Amino acid sequence: MIIKKNSDVSEEFLNKEGMNNVIKKILIGPEEGSENIILRHFRVLPGGNSPYHTHKHEHVVNVEKGKGKIVDGKGQETLISEGQSLFIKGNEKHQFKNPFQNPFEFLCIILNPDKNG
Amino acid sequence: MIIKKNSDVSEEFLNKEGMNNVIKKILIGPEEGSENIILRHFRVLPGGNSPYHTHKHEHVVNVEKGKGKIVDGKGQETLISEGQSLFIKGNEKHQFKNPFQNPFEFLCIILNPDKNG
Predict the structure, then answer these.
(1) Assigned architecture for domain B10-116
(2) To the nearest whole angstrom, how far is the Cα of A66 from the nearest Cα of chain B?
(3) What ipTM score was computed for the predicted complex, to two decimals?
(4) Shortest Cα–Cα distance, B18 to chain A (Å)
(5) For residues A36-55, b (16+ Cβ closer than 10 Å) or e, as one string?
(6) Which residues of A touch B84 (CB under 8 A)?
């Protein structure tokens, strides 16, 4: 059993490949012995965004703090905030954006793409 | 893409099979189109606990609110609280307990046992 403090996990500041002012932490993944489920924490700073992109793996999301926008495959934007959950299918185009004044934080769970294509 | 409010999800009050004062919600699962990853929310009321049990599927946990105790395979108890993450291996004995005064809430992610044995 692995027990961690999220605050001890090192941050990766992402400002490349369509990522803009996004801070990523891998809370649980292969390093903790989890070969299948990967639990990541994202903090999108005000004005930040993820790329508007698509990939094979699906996303399960829980909004932890603040609010932001999710863009779907048709380009439609929906406001999402703390206490909401999302399911984004594999190969569905999507983007997270934070046009607001406070950080937008969410957990994003994926299946390990190295093991699940 | 599915977008939900967690507060809209119906609760299941568990007081059976070793569960004592535990409230469960399935936030994302097969009903939302997620065939592999299942995101559940648990609220363990003061004095409540899950069974001290073992099963094949692994758990990825993020503590959302309050504090509680996790019992590991050796019977050792560790205090866990908001802002901590856990990985519990498959077949590792474990139990969640709340001996405190306030609800203890966590997200628990599993792979769909129907699809992943």
Answers:
(1) Sandwich (2.60)
(2) 14
(3) 0.96
(4) 21
(5) bbbbbbbbbeeebbbbeeee
(6) 3-6
On whether the pTM is more than 0.90, the answer is yes
Residue where the block lists tokens 């999710």: A70
Mean pLDDT along residues A80-100: 98
Taking CA–CA distances from A86, the nearest residue in chain B reads B3
* 3 state SS of B13: strand
Residue B91's CB is within 10 A of a number of other CB atoms, namely 11
Instruction: Say whether residue B33 is in contact with chain A using an 8 A CB cutoff.
Output: yes
Measuring CA to CA, which residue among A91, A52, A44, A46 is closest to residue A71?
A: A52
User: Rounded to an integer, what distance in angstroms lies between the CA atom of residue B112 and that of residue B25?
Assistant: 15
Instruction: Mention every residue, 6+ apart, whose C-beta is less than 8 A from residue A101.
Output: A46
